[in-house]
Amino acid sequence: MTSVKEFRVDEPATADGLGRGRFVFTDAYSVFDWGQMPDAVPNKGASLCTMGAFNFELLESEGVPTHYRGVVDPARDADAGDGRAPEVVPLDEATAPPTEMAIDLTQVPDLPYEGPHAGYDYDAFHAAGDENYLVPLEVVFRNRVPVGSSLRKRADPADFGLDDLGGADGEWPDEPVDLPEPVVEFSTKYEGQDRYLARAEADEIAGAADVDALESLARDVNRVVTDRAADAGFVHEDGKIECLSVDGELRVADVVGTFDENRFSYGGRGISKEVVRQWYKANDPDWVAAVSEAKAAVADRDTDDWRELCGRDPDPLPPTVVDTVSDLYAAGTNAYTGREWFDAPDIETALDAVDAL
Question: Which residue, 109, 142, 171, 295, has fewest beta-carbon neighbours within 10 Å?
Fold first, then answer.
């Protein structure tokens, strides 16, 4: 399914209804859309699964529809022994950090690429998906504009009523900026490179799904995650959702509110996979530059796979970095959920170790 999650199908989705399956969260990670990187980060998969399940259950309690069904407790027998799917339980009943999440499945049609001039055939995508499909968009919400946010390249502070920031040149300051109101944006999901969309184009790509309803759902998710983060001492800076559409109803899909999908901070220090992105920018800049060049070079070709044009592979992370990032994910999950799922340092100690890298 992705570079960091595996996929299990128990009952396939059809044009007439949802199926059932599971995400299996691995310790792999991806940055800069590269796909699976050379290393694994211990406890990362269990951290993402635990935080995702925690947030899905919060959303369900607030009446927000999702595709979540529960988790598989790793301390129980995960194989029923007769071909049946493993038992699914609420997160509170798991006796150890889970790595499998049970979900309802929708159809995910192929998105044909017709070359640099014709682009992607969304009509074919929606014809195959009918009334039961994964909306081919990511809906991004932003409460803050941290350093490193792509929004700094695409908009000025004045676009959000922040006319007094940045001085006469109107540029973003060198520190995070809180937005007066959350901002919602749309980007592509299945294209070779993600791109942000004007609302009209997002509406076309969404198919039968309504962009106003997608935005409303994203704002509901943002509110629930932001409130929980504040209760646990975090600041929720930004994040995204994906959605499925079934018979005209939208539900939150994929996974929500983790350190991969969202950016959080604690005491002014960031907690997300941005830590790893910044490490690569500082310590493997030639690979980062090669990725950027390959993404630009693919624009006029008949393939949308820019990785074929990248002449470098990423360096592996040093063991000390792997251990530090592992502790950060684990400590952050403990703090966010309010339960000691992992044997990890407290969040302040984990952040101090990140600062020392």
Answer: 171
